[in-house]
Specification:
By secondary structure, the chain is α/β, with parallel strands linked by helices. The protein is built from eight helices and nine strands. It has two domains: 3-72 and 149-254, P-loop containing nucleotide triphosphate hydrolases (Rossmann fold); 85-147, no CATH class.
């Protein structure tokens, strides 16, 4: 497979001297679903922001497998961040408006994307009228309406209840299988990472770096039944052990 993105020896040091990332190496192949997992402060979100061009690395290199991927990426943030004064339809339309897409084409794309995330019929609703899960669906639709090649997701389901989170996990997987995006997904939840991913990349904090890169060799489609299998539990234990190791103090070479 071809690498969609490769980060090579990437470091990020903030102006206050905090080292967010140090010599981080990560490659994500076309069509993979990769989750970044690690303690708070390990630089997971910083990695996404560097890939998206929302933050600059202090040193290192970001390679793109294809310029088309760089030009067609979308970012889903932890908070839905919807415009409260705008309808669902107009929230989803925003990136198309900014890109100068014609009104007729935008209307078609918005309708198509709302069907994709099961929000047909809520076009005229306002964010205050929606549940947390529905707001996140709108946020995802706003990202998908531009037909991205690469989807960056920063703990999009972290604030949701477990039932809603589980449903959106399954819906996201179904969409990913249908559209074959490359996905980099940040989460704190081991169970979510195992359920969704081809690979789970475990990061350690202070300084942020990759300490484990674990393949999840279970075929798709995955159903809720997968969550109760011995292999699911084994992967969760393996990642939990890697996280425990990641929580240990950094060695002298990073001090």
């Amino acid at each position: 497979m071809t690498a969609a993105i490769t980060l090579s020896n990437v470091s990020k040091i903030y102006n206050n001297g905090t080292t967010a990332l140090q010599d981080l190496n990560l490659s994500v192949e076309d069509g993979q679903f990769v989750s970044l997992l690690g303690p708070s402060g390990c630089g997971k979100s910083t990695v996404l922001r560097i890939i998206a061009g929302l933050g600059q690395m202090s040193s290192g290199t970001l390679y793109w497998g294809d310029d088309r991927i760089k030009q067609r990426l979308a970012f889903v943030f932890q908070e839905a961040a919807l415009m409260p004064w705008a309808t669902v339809e107009n929230n989803v339309r925003l990136p198309l408006k900014l890109a100068g897409v014609s009104q007729a084409e935008a209307t078609k794309l918005v309708a198509e994307t709302l069907r994709l995330v099961e929000l047909t019929g809520f076009e005229r609703a306002y964010p205050r009228q929606l549940s947390g899960g529905m707001k996140m669906r709108v946020s995802i639709a706003r990202a998908l309406v531009t037909k991205p090649e690469l989807l960056l997701m920063d703990e999009p389901f972290g604030a949701l209840d477990e039932m809603t989170r589980s449903r959106l996990n399954s819906d996201l997987l179904a969409l990913w299988q249908q559209k074959q995006w490359t996905v980099v997904f940040v989460t704190h939840n081991i169970y979510e990472a195992v359920y969704l991913s081809n690979r789970v990349v475990v990061m350690a904090a202070r300084p942020g770096r990759v300490v484990a890169d674990l393949p999840i060799d279970v075929p798709y489609p995955r159903t809720e039944a997968f969550r109760t299998t011995p292999s699911f539990n084994a992967y969760c234990r393996q990642i939990s052990a890697a996280l425990a190791e990641a929580a240990e103090p950094a060695t002298a070479e990073f001090s």
